[in-house]
Amino acid sequence: MIVTGKARLAGVMGWPVGHSRSPRLHGFWLERLGLDGAYVPLAVAPDDFALAVKALPKLGFAGANVTVPHKEAALALADEVEPLAARIGAVNTLVFRPDGSVLGRNTDAFGFLENLRRGAPAGWRPALGPAVVLGAGGAARAVAAALVDAGVPQVRVVNRSLDRAARLAAEIGGPVAPMAWDRVAHALEGAALLVNTTTLGMTGQPPLEIDLAPLPTDAVVNDIVYAPLQTGLLKEAAARGNPVVDGIGMLLWQAVPGFEAWFGVRPEVTPELRDFVLA
Predict the structure, then answer these.
(1) Are 11 and 40 a contacting pair, CB within 8 Å?
(2) pLDDT in tens, 162-197
(3) Which residue among 1, 115, 117, 133 sits deepest, i.e. has the most Cβ atoms within 10 Å of its Cβ?
(4) Whole-angstrom distance between the N-terminal and C-terminal Cα of the chain?
(5) CATH architecture of 8-107+254-278
(6) How far apart are CA 138 and CA 212, in angstroms?
(7) What is the radius of gyration, based on Cα positions, of the chain?
(8) Domain boundaries in the chain?
């Protein structure tokens, strides 16, 4: 990695931000590509976020990723928001343009879909059948939008708050069916894909406890959690014969469009990158 006075800069804005693997991820690409640039963690308190977004372009930044708790604030601050990000209701990537304006994007939907398509052992296609999405938060909105736009015939969003699932369905549009958590068994029947977008099963969180018996054994099971990499859901699904896709690939693929926008080169997602980020 080369860093001169002309280096292009980017970073990740969050509060806290020390847990983020994005600096390691982007740093790998910058090093391998020999680019004059740097990607740094930016711990920004919520009250300082708007000021920081205005200041970064003046400090030579080409853009930034945005993580918790700033994704909705970034949506409101951007001068232009891509339609997909507006539908999802959150921005995770900011691009600072030469004219001083700020473009807001959401690359989570792209990252999810690329990980799913490339990670499923026998391949996954939207036409295979309905998808079940557990949760109705920000990640679920990106996943549901990706599945609808890809052409999945029905997206069943299962959430403890039915109202929140219904709001997601209305705002994302398309064949999204909100379902209460006690209907999860019914939702799994005939599904070709199951995606967990909740924090259940994550390190330090309660386990995800659902009965997979109604789920066809050829359905792909994906957990966007990547700490641990093999969650309880994925272990249980694999044990019954379901093809499984872990969550780290979504992190890797969602980073590609931002890196390309900031540094002018489209990077590659490789097994070596995956191992480096996980190390």
Answers:
(1) yes
(2) 999 999 999 999 999 999 999 999 999 999 999 999
(3) 133
(4) 20
(5) 3-Layer(aba) Sandwich (3.40)
(6) 24
(7) 19
(8) 8-107+254-278, 124-242
Q: Give the Cα separation of 147 and 153 in Å (integer).
A: 9
Tell me the C-alpha distance between 161 and 171, whole Å: 16
Please give the model's pTM, rounded to 2 decimal places.
Answer: 0.96
pLDDT above 90 covers a percentage of the chain that reads: 97
19 φ, ψ to 5°? -80, -15
Task: Dump pLDDT digits (tens) for 15-40.
Answer: 999 999 999 999 999 999 999 999 99
* C-alpha span between 98 and 95 (Å, rounded): 10
Q: Give the DSSP H/E element, type plus range, for residue 106.
A: none
Which superfamily, per CATH, for 124-242? NAD(P)-binding Rossmann-like Domain (3.40.50.720)
Active-site residue list? 71
Distance of CA 52 to the CA centre of its chain: 23
Half-sphere CA count of 134, side-chain side, radius 13 A: 26
